[in-house]
Amino acid sequence: MSEEVRTAIAPINAFEYTVTEEDTDELGHVNNRVYMRWLEESARQASALRGWGADAYLTRGFAWVARQHWIEYLRPCVPGDRIMVYTWVEATAGARSLRRYCFKRGPKVCIVAATEWDFINLATRRAVDVPESVRAQFECVPADDPRLKELGIARPVRYAPDPFVE
Predict the structure, then answer these.
(1) CA quadruple 152, 156, 157, 160: dihedral positive or negative?
(2) Residue 31 belongs to domain with CATH number
(3) Which residues contact 9 (CB under 8 A, 6 or more apart)?
(4) Is position 98 within any domain?
(5) Residue 70: how many CA atoms within 13 Å on its side-chain side?
(6) By residue range, what is the domain housing residue 55?
(7) What is the pTM for the complete model shown?
């Protein structure tokens, strides 16, 4: 397997964004809605890397919907900053999946975030257990995984959903 393919299917994915003037608010730093867009975009891209883009879910009659988001802002990001958004699945149980994110500017952590996603049957509009064919494509990365530490993502994340048991 090529290095390029191994990187694509690694359990922790990284996506780069460059902050523009349009991304900022009246205080001159990235607006909250932009951070939310980057959370969703990076989650969608990470899923697509595993063969589960939006079309793959929709043609099978399913979708992920956000149940709740949590963001802790540690440092502002301003125009010209190059931000790496790291994302990984920490846990999946039943119809729910917990995806974590870390936004870094160089070696500095700017934001830590999490989204609880529910897997929805589009015909019934109800949450259903994540099929094994989907679950198998997403290796869960626990909070103490050494790969996170290697990326400089060793900061404890305060958000812990209740209950969220695998």
Answers:
(1) positive
(2) 3.10.129.10
(3) 49, 50
(4) yes
(5) 13
(6) 3-150
(7) 0.88
CB burial readout 17-50, b (16+ within 10 A) else e: bebeeebbeeeebbeeebbeebbeebbeebbebb
Contact by Cβ (8 Å): 85, 15: yes
- Report how far residue 119's alpha carbon sits from residue 61's, in angstroms, rounded to the nearest whole number: 11
Render pLDDT for 122-150 as a digit per residue (tens, 0 to 9): 999 999 999 999 999 999 999 899 999 99
Q: Which of 54, 55, 153, 64 is nearest to 115 (CA)?
A: 64
Q: Do the Cβ atoms of 150 and 101 come closer than 8 Å? A: no
Instruction: Retrieve residue 3's tokens.
Output: 């290095």
* Chain centroid offset of residue 146 CA: 18
Count of domains in the chain? Answer: 1
- Residue 19 domain-assigned? yes
